[in-house]
Design brief:
Oligomer: heterodimer
CATH superfamily of one domain in chain A: Periplasmic binding protein-like II
Largest interface: A-B, 55 and 64 residues
Number of domains of chain B: 2
Distance between the termini of chain B: 26 Å
CATH topology of one domain in chain A: D-Maltodextrin-Binding Protein, domain 2
Helix content of chain A: 25-40%
Organism (chain B): Paenibacillus glycanilyticus
Strand order of the largest sheet of chain A: 2-1-3-14-6
Family (chain B): Belongs to the binding-protein-dependent transport system permease family.
Main location (chain B): membrane
Pfam families (chain B): BPD_transp_1
Structural class of chain B: mainly alpha
Radius of gyration of chain A: 26 Å
Distance between the termini of chain A: 76 Å
Largest sheet of chain A: 5 strands, mixed
Membrane topology (chain B): Multi-pass membrane protein
Chain lengths: ~575, ~325
């Protein structure tokens, strides 16, 4: 008996170890899935400069450090960054430029790729082991990591530095939407400078099979009622002419979320004045969760009737964003809603399946009260954190200011008129400037910069696209560059995106998950997804929505609403 | 240790001690060869176990293992009080149990059937074909199954409607989802499981069959009285080992196939931990569940080991 026991013990330990390893490895499977769903706030570009010292400082220009100083930094290096033979992250055309121009030596503290969370893991480890932090961390990705970094208290109130050293161009770009600061606010301090990205980049338009519309003699839908007629025709009148009833109206996929980045259905809720799965601002300046509003109930009723009439794919609940869009490109669905860049991917594939296929962008239709609503896109895609112990923070601003002034919207005759570096993103061939990948080899030196893309002015991209769509001549270097790379449907879509910009319902909550969110988010999300899909599939009556709302509120929803509003008060300073 | 200290008296004991040291002297290279593996196990299996303490902390990465606040059993309390946890554990048990049972029975029967086939070429080809799916990942199979099982126009549903039934929404119906999980898992893995049984079959002494034939036993009788008993030990080994997995219902598979429509019946512990622990950044909680699962698995393995010994008089180790 005793011997028996002794033999059992190692067995048990071993078994325990094995199963533990299995769990940890299962958890290693990671986490970007949700990121896309939370498209953030976007607002009309406002020209109101931030109060106070808009023109203070900003004279960090033409600084050159002699002897050169070193900025140590960290950023994830994505697989999209390509180096020439003999160059690497610490030694390339851009670091040489920074050294020559400013006397700044850019030095990665260590290098880790962005894939498989290698960067996050390494950074978390060095945080845990109390290693010295670099002067600057530039990061986009897991928001939890950003909060951990901010909570560690090792980074300085970057907002103050920004007010002091940033140039006007950069400040204007930032002020297009001041809410970009909100995620990085801590006790009224702006820890972390948002990295700006092009605005409206993820805002949806409605893509329709133009050839089907013409064949069936349909007009562009302006309201949900019009749309219903179009969908009915696409479903029942055999638009692809193969004699089979194998087509349907609208491709949506809500395996992840109903308000999402492609194959979106959020705009249907928008037509009823709300936006699910995000925090909307109400008329009295409070924030409310869109999925539990009256508008959502109406939208769900609409979706239910569409599903029962066969306008939606039977498998909408199983499709993710990409899979649903495949139904459009496969010629099964006639409508899909998604960003203006969809012609670049995946819409063009529809022509592979049917060379006569045509598609065109249309404005989102209005609801019964004439309302149109869509989700927005954040003007920011990452953050720069500055170490409290950094010796020369002004050096970073000098560097970034210059990129904003010279590179974000380059001037004719400016240093970056043709691109960032000759021989990389542009070459001279036969006396002409060439920027296409075939001549340059596809090098992108802006990806060598600290902030991933050099410098971007949010409103610029869409404004230029829209301008080009109306047939105006491309004059500035930026306009010329965009014109070369954009197809006509894409330009038209961009124009529509801008025309409908007042319909944006921005995600107002961009802070860290609140205390109750951390414990209750999953159960609430599960409840919401379950109720929504049961209603859409007609397995539950529309009125079960009311029960869901009650349960949502009592299971933590009310508490979260309160916390979210407290957060909003704290970051917006109580202004409406 | 004691043995060497005590004066060696009888010649027998002397001889034994001498042989022992001689063994060591002669076999030390073999023992040394074991060392790297041992070190690896210690570094990668035992040392990380220290991380279990996270389960009793409110773990904050920048504070590390030593700096995070201790919360005792709070995480466990949170786990047990979680409103959905009962359903999630039940789902896991049901799915895992049926996968285990089917994963044992199907290869067992299939191996016996395959063994009866005389045409070598056919046997080999079948064997290869059925174990091929084992090498496909669930990410790929997830996409394939979505198409094959589609209610309108999917291969399987075409067959179903051809027999006059209504099409079935395999991946979107709470009543069918678990069934789909189990069958697709068995389909993917039974070929691989068959190999083990075939190996055991090859080890049966042919003399037994010859003797049975002389005694006038039919093929069926031979199978029941010779083949099946011969396969029993390996079946018990596999069964015992798999019981430890009763709380693993297959993260890869469920994660790639589940969706809002079948959350109720399809959500298992691992997917739940993934959402809460990874997506919502509650590392302590994820570790808590991991530890919980390990403890349950350890108890189950120990019990099944005992039962295998008691009832089948068989020892795995």
């Amino acid at each position: 008996m005793k011997e028996h026991k002794r033999k059992l013990l190692p067995t048990m330990v071993l078994a325990g170890v094995i199963s533990l390893t299995a769990i940890t490895s299962a958890c290693g499977n990671n986490n970007n899935a949700a990121g896309n769903a939370n498209s953030n706030a976007s607002q009309e570009p406002s020209n109101t400069a931030a109060e106070g010292n808009a023109n203070a400082g900003a004279e960090a220009k033409d600084v050159k450090f002699d002897p050169p100083i070193t900025i140590s930094y960290l950023r994830p290096w994505g697989p999209d960054v390509k180096f020439k033979e003999g160059e690497d992250q610490d030694n390339n055309v851009h670091t040489k430029w920074a050294l020559d121009k400013f006397g700044i030596q850019l030095k990665n503290q260590w290098i880790a790729p962005s894939t498989n969370n290698a960067f996050e893991t390494k950074l978390r480890l060095s945080l845990a082991t109390n290693e010295k932090m670099p002067d600057i961390i530039s990061y986009r990705g897991d928001f939890n990591l950003v909060r951990e970094l901010i909570d560690s208290g090792r980074f300085i109130d970057a907002g103050e530095l920004f007010d002091k050293y940033a140039s006007q161009v950069w400040k204007d770009a930032m002020n297009e939407d001041p809410t970009v600061w909100y995620p990085y606010m801590e006790d009224g301090k702006r820890v972390g400078i948002p990295i700006l990205d092009y605005a409206y980049n993820g805002d949806p338009v409605m893509w329709i099979r133009e050839d089907w519309m013409q064949k069936l003699g349909l007009a562009a839908p302006k309201t949900l009622d019009d749309l219903e007629k179009v969908m009915d025709a696409f479903t029942n009148q055999d638009p692809d002419g193969n004699g089979k009833k194998d087509t349907y109206g609208l491709a949506i996929g809500f395996k992840n979320w109903i308000n999402t980045w492609m194959s979106d259905a959020g705009w249907i809720f928008g037509a009823y004045g709300t936006m699910p799965n995000q925090w909307n601002k109400t008329a009295d300046g409070k924030l409310e969760y869109g999925s539990v509003t009256e508008g959502s109930k109406q939208a769900l009723a609409t979706l239910q009737s569409w599903m029962s009439k066969g306008y939606l794919p039977t498998e909408a609940g199983l499709y993710d964003e990409t899979k649903a869009a495949e139904d459009f490109t496969a010629g099964k669905a006639g409508i899909v809603v998604g960003p203006h860049w969809m012609p670049a991917w995946p819409l063009e594939d529809v022509k592979k399946n049917n060379k006569d296929a045509q598609y065109k962008a249309y404005p989102l239709p209005a609801g019964p009260d004439g309302k149109v609503g869509r989700h927005g896109t954040s003007n920011s895609n990452g953050v720069v954190l500055i170490n409290a112990e950094m010796e020369h923070p002004e050096a970073f601003f000098a560097y970034q200011n210059y990129l904003f002034e010279q590179y974000a919207n380059p001037q004719v005759g400016g240093e970056f008129e043709n691109g960032l570096a000759e021989g990389y993103d542009w070459v001279m061939a036969d006396g002409q400037v060439k920027t296409d990948a075939a001549s340059t080899g596809g090098y992108a030196p802006e990806k060598y910069t600290i902030t991933f893309d050099g410098a971007r002015i949010p409103s610029l991209n869409m404004q230029v696209l829209s301008k080009l769509a109306s047939g105006e001549e491309a004059t500035t270097p930026f306009e010329k560059k965009l014109k070369l790379s954009s197809s006509q449907p894409l330009l038209e879509a961009a124009k529509i995106v801008l025309e409908q910009k007042d319909s944006v319902l921005p995600q107002m909550f961009t802070g860290a998950p609140t205390a109750t969110m951390q414990t209750s988010n999953d159960i609430l999300a599960k409840m919401e997804k379950d109720t929504f899909s049961q209603i859409i599939y007609g397995k539950a009556p529309v009125d079960s929505f009311d029960k869901f709302v009650d349960k949502w509120k009592s299971s933590g929803g009310d508490k979260i609403t309160q916390e979210v509003n407290e957060w909003y008060q704290s970051v917006s300073g109580g202004t409406k | 240790m004691k043995e060497t200290a005590v004066q060696l008296s009888t010649p027998q004991e002397k001889r034994r001690a001498a042989r022992k040291s001689w063994n060591m002297k002669r076999n030390w290279p073999l023992h040394m060869m074991l060392l790297p593996a041992l070190i690896l196990v210690i570094i990668f299996q035992y040392v990380p176990m220290a991380g279990i303490v996270i389960a009793f902390q409110d773990f904050k990465p920048f504070k590390g293992l030593t700096g995070s606040e201790w919360v005792g059993f709070d995480n466990f309390r949170f786990l047990l009080k979680y409103p959905d946890i009962g359903q999630v554990i039940w789902n896991t048990l049901v799915i895992a149990f049926f996968k285990m049972a089917a994963g044992l029975i199907v290869p067992f029967l299939f191996a016996i059937l395959l063994n009866e086939i005389r045409l070598m070429a056919f046997k080999r080809i079948t064997q290869t074909l059925v174990y091929l799916p084992h090498f496909l990942s669930w990410v790929i199979l997830g996409g394939i199954l979505l198409d094959i099982l589609a209610p309108d126009g999917g291969l399987v549903n075409k067959a179903v409607t051809a027999f006059g039934f209504k099409e079935i929404f395999f991946l979107g119906d709470n009543n069918w989802f678990r069934f789909t999980l189990i069958v697709s898992d068995v389909w993917k893995e039974f070929g691989f499981g068959t190999i083990v049984f075939l190996a055991a079959l090859a080890g049966i002494n042919p003399a037994l069959y010859e003797a049975a034939e002389v005694d006038g036993a039919s093929r069926l009788k031979q199978t029941i009285h010779i083949t099946m008993p011969a396969l029993m030990p390996i079946t018990i080994v596999l069964g015992t080992l798999s019981i430890g997995n009763i709380l693993n219902a297959g993260f890869d598979q469920v994660f790639n196939l589940y969706n809002p429509l079948v959350m109720e019946k399809g959500d298992i512990i691992d997917t739940f931990v993934y959402r809460l622990g990874i997506l919502n950044g509650k590392m302590s909680f994820a570790t808590t569940v991991g530890l919980f699962k390990s403890v349950v698995a350890t108890i189950l393995i120990a019990t099944s080991y005992r039962m295998a010994y008691k009832f089948a008089n068989y020892r795995v180790f």
